[in-house]
C-alpha cells in the first residue's frame, strides 16, 4: 500500500527553496496541496502524464496529510472531481486517490514554476500573492496588480 | 564705441591667428557667437577686456596657447596678441596688446611683459597714436570702472544694480569724477591757506585756530559717523529687503516642509498598515491556502453527491435492508410473489449497494466539503479584503510619493532658514537702524549746536584777529575763495548727480516696463538704490531670477542710452559716450518666458550687442525673437588634439568633439 506522496524530481530545488529559503509555506505538505489545488482550479492536468515523471526521493508521508484538517478531504475532492466516480471512495481505491493527487501536484508544480517561480517581478511573496489574486479572479486582472516593494 | 573685429593670436584655446567680424549694422546690431561650453566663450569675452585694460581672469602664464607653446623651443620667446578694431566718435581705432613670454619647460612659460598700442584714423584721414594708452582709453573710450557694465556674464548681471555699482556707473559714465576731483582739490587748497594763516599767526590767533581745529575735527568725526551710520542703514535696508524676500519664500517653504512631513508620516503609517495586511496574507497563504482555489471543485463535488442521493445511490443502507427483506419474504410490497427472474435482479441490486464504510466516508466527505466551503469563503473574503485595503493604501502611497517628490523638488536647493529666525533677524536690523537713526539725529543736532554756537563765535573772533594783521588778510581771502569754490562744486555735483539719477530713472522705468510688459514704478533713490514697486499698490514684489536679470539689463540699457544722449549733445560737463553690450550667456538658466522677453528687447538695449550663446540657450523662441536683429553669427568650434592634424590641414569635415575626449593639455577652439 502506498504510504507517501511524491513530487517530480525536477522541482526539488524549487520546493526546497519555497519552503526553506523563502518560507512562503509553513510545511512541504501545504505547498504541495497548494499546487494540487492550482491544477484543480485550472483544470490543467494534461501537461504531465504520471508515467513519464521521474520522482524525487524526497517524499511526504501520507500520515502527515491524514493529520491535516482538510488534507485528506482535498485528496478525495480532487479524486472525485477527476474520476467523476463516487465509488472511488469505496476504501479499496485509496492508492488511486493518492496517484491522482500526485498527478495534480506535479501539474500544479509545473504551473507554479512557470508562472510564479521563474518570473520574478517584485519578490517571491508579492509575486505569489499577485498570482493568487489573479487566479481567484480568473485572470481578469488582479486587485493587487499595483503591488510594489513594500510587500517585502 | 562700435567693435568692428577682433583678431586673436595664440590666445588661450585659440591657436594661430583667428578673426571675428562683428555686426555694425544699425538695423541688425546683434552678433551671435554660438559656442558649446568649454569652447572658449569666456576666453573670448575676456580677450575684449584684456586688449583694452590688460587684466586677465587667469594667471598670465596661462594665456599662451599650449600647442603654440609646444611648438617653441625651450628658452625661446613667445608672443601672443589680441587686436581689436572699433569706431568711436568718428575715429577708427586699432588697439593691439602683445604679451611676451619665455618658454621654461615643456609646457610652462614665464611672463615677461605686455605692451599695448593704439592708433586711430580721424575723420580727416589723419593718423594719431596717443602715448599714454591706458589713460587715453579710460578718459576717451571706456572708463575701466565701467568695463563690467558692458562686458559681463549673464549670471553676474544681477549685482550690477547694487547701490555702489549704480553710483559708480553714473559718475564714471557721465565724467562726473572730474568734478569730484576738482572739489577735493579745492578743499586741499583751502586747507593749505588755512595752514599758512596758522603758521603766521600770533599766539591768540593760534589759540583760536586750535580751538576751531578741535571743533572742526569733532564735527568731522561726527559727520563721518553719521555717514557710516547712513551707509549702515542703507545696507541694512537692502539686507532687510532680501530677508523679507526670503521670508516670503521661507513661509512658503515652511508650509511645504510641514506638508512634506505630514505626507511622510501618512506614508509611513500606510506602509506599516500594508506590511501588517501583507503579513496577514502571508499567513493565509502559508496555511491552507489551497482552500482559496477549491470552491468550484467543492460545489462540483457536492453536486455529484446530491445527484447520487437523488438517484438513491446514497445513502444505501435503507435500500440494502429493503432489498434483503423483500428477498427473504419473497413477496413484493404490492403482495405479488417474487418471480425467480425478479429475485435475480434483486440479489444483484443488493450486492451492488455500497458498504457501510463507503457510506461513512461519503457522509464525512460531504460534511467536510461543507466546512471547507465555508472556510474557503471566509479565507477568500479575508484575502480580498486585505488586497483591497492594500490597493487603496498603495494608491494613496503613490499619490503621496508624487506629492513628496514635488515638494522635495520645490524645497531642493533651498537653504532652509526658519521663519522665526528670519523675523528675528529683521527685528535686529530694524533695531540697529533705529539706534543708528537716533545717534545720527543726536549728532546732527550737536553739529548744528556747535556750528551755530561756539564755532560761529570762534570763526568771528578769528576773522577779527586776522583783520588786525594785513599780511594774514590775503591768505584769508584765498582761503574763503577756495572754500566757496569747493562748496560750489559740491552743490554742482549733487545737482548733476540728482539730475542724472532722475533722467536715468525715467529711461530705466521705460525699458523695464517695456520688457516686462507691466506697470512697475522704478526708482533710483538718492542713495542709488534701485527700487521697484507695483504701481497699483506700491508694494515691493519678490523678484525672481528672471526679473533680476531684466532689471540689470534695463539699467545697463538706460545707462547706455543716457550716455549716448549726452555724448551727442556736446554737453560741457557731462560727456557721456557710446558703448556696446557684450554678454556671455545672457539667458542663463532663465525660464523660457524671460528668455523670450529678453531676446525680444535685447537688440534695443545698445547700438551694438554681442551675445555668446550655448546650443541649449539657442532655443526656437530665442532664435525667433532675435532673428530680425541679428547681423552676424559666428560659431566657435572646439577640436581635440586627435583632430589637430586635420584642423591644421584646413579640413572642413572635422568632427566636433565633446568633453569625452578632453585631454589634460589645453585644446583648441576655432572660429568659423
Structure description:
The complex is a heterodimer of chains A (152) and B (672). By secondary structure, chain A is mainly α. Chain A has 2 domains: 4-119; 121-152, no CATH class. Helices cover 53% and strands 3% of the residues of chain A. Chain A has helices at residues 12-21, 28-42, 62-67, 71-83, 94-117, 124-136; strands at residues 4-5, 60-61. Chain A has a two-stranded antiparallel ribbon with strand order 1-2. The longest helix of chain A is centred in the last third of the chain and has 24 residues, at 94-117. Chain B is an alpha/beta fold and 672 residues long. Among the domains of chain B are: 2-142 and 579-671, Rossmann fold (3-Layer(aba) Sandwich), CATH 3.40.50.300; 203-316 and 354-454, Orthogonal Bundle (Helix Hairpins). In chain B, the strands form 3 sheets. In chain B, strands 2-1-4-5-6-7 form a 6-stranded antiparallel β-sheet. In chain B, strand 4 and strand 5 form a beta hairpin. In chain B, helix 9 packs antiparallel against helix 10 and helix 13 (470-516) crosses helix 14. The longest helix of chain B is centred in the middle third of the chain and has 84 residues, at 203-286. The radius of gyration of chain B is 47 Å and the shape is elongated. Mean pLDDT of chain B is 81; it is low at 650-668. Classes of the chains: A mainly alpha (152), B alpha/beta (672). At the A-B interface, helix 2, helix 4 and helix 6 of A face helix 7, helix 8 and helix 11 of B.
